[in-house]
């Protein structure tokens, strides 16, 4: 799965509307973050399938991406990313999740 076309799809998928209307990131719960992560994981798999990649390769890449984010994004940044996502602010989500981890995320594309 080519990572270059994947990253914009991930950000677009993150911007799916949600029904939560917190007034600050501090109000975002761990349960909401778990759902957010699950949506990202599903979006990754959908993007890989849409790209026509074999299922084992999609699983490998998506697992790698999930692991990179799990290991490198703080709880507070997840909260802020969820909050910004709920406001439709893709640029901020990208700054919080994608840009700081860009090299590690790109390395996932080379997974067998």
Give structural notes.
The model is unreliable at 1-5 (pLDDT under 50). By secondary structure, the protein is mainly alpha-helical. Helix 1 (3-14) packs across helix 5 (90-98), helix 2 packs antiparallel against helix 3 (55-72) and helix 2 (30-51) crosses helix 4 (75-86). The protein has helices at residues 3-14, 30-51, 55-72, 75-86, 90-98, 102-108. It has six helices and no strands.
Shape: elongated
- What is the percentage of strand-forming residues? under 5%
- Largest β-sheet summary: none
The percent range for helix content is over 70%
- Provide mean pLDDT, rounded: 83
Class inferred from helices and paired strands = mainly alpha
Say how many strands there are: 0
What's the total helix number? 6
The SSE string, one letter per element, is HHHHHH
Rg:
13 Å
Low-confidence stretches: 1-5
Q: State the assembly state of the protein chains.
A: single chain
Distance between the termini: 10 Å
